[in-house]
Amino acid sequence: MKKNRKRFAAGFFILLFTVALLIFLLPDKTFSPNENRVLAKFPKLSVSEITSGRFQQGLTDYLSDQIPLRDMWMRMHTGLSKFMGQKTVNGVYLGKDHYYFPKFTDESYSPSRMVSVFRLISSFTDEAQIPATVMLVPTAGTVLNDKLPNNAPYYNADTVYKAAAQLIHCDVLDLRDCFGKAKETEQLYYRNDHHWTTMGAYLAYREYAVSIGLSPREYSLEKVSDSFYGTAYSKVLDSSAVADSIFALKQLPKVQIRCDGGAVLDSPYQTDFLSKKDKYAYFFCGNWGKLTVDTENKNGEKLLVIKDSFANSFVPFLFEDFESITMLDLRYFRGNVQDVLQEQGITRILFLYETSNLLTDTGILQLQNRR
Questions:
Q1: Residue 321 near residue 301, CB atoms below 8 Å
Q2: Which of 14, 139, 236, 238 sits at a 20 to 30 Å CA gap from 169?
């Protein structure tokens, strides 16, 4: 028995030593296609970094990101967690029917910060004196709460929507009732990604069109991919995951899309990304700080969308209703929003954020410095 323990201990330490040696001998990986993010670099070593604790945290992140065969270890961890009956892996709920949900609870956001964000939005729209709507996209876990693991803690959406209605002076569009009715017949969210599907975006478009006095248009969708594994899957690498399909509008009006840095696109759909890991970037090549869509519809209506990535699959439904659509992602935009309002001649504003994103995103706070 003692010999077996010694052999196990020796083997364990040999494994740790080998992994550590490989981390420092192999060249650092800079990007993870699976997780679609930049990997941690070796932290700066200095007395101030050590005393502040930043070096220790940076070293932990570095070792975690640079461990050899990282994806394999993640798969093994998920498999073991499921075998032990755990329902949460790496901050993701392993839901029913192959759905994965980012874990978001009442402790995941600051109520005082929420109030500040809502007041900031209200102050901005009051000063702009332009018709505005705030679309709070419900999280997948809010709409598909029956797919969450049994007794899984989840945030109270009613609290957030009630606060928004009280603090934001412009129209607040609540999609929960519409989505709740449609979820029985339509797939509104991807199973293994946090975004809504194109059908979910289409239903949101119909609700938005009615709210601003437009007649919703009918659109036909076509499947462009059936092998999408998104951000939630990337955090768990579950071997039993089911691939999602991506849909797009069959027909679009002619447009010219001007992006940051001078890039010009002739379509919001970029097929090159369908062969890559980050297939959601099929919509507009992903996120830009500023992007403007010019259509052939000369009706004088010009929309400003202040948004997160949920808007990327939503905005193409509006091409036939506006002369131009400018999209600002305040995580990346470094200009002045008031200048955009004036330069583009904006006639309507839409804030479009998935609710948990708005409650935690730091970009929206920059609005106070860009007015």
A1: yes
A2: 139
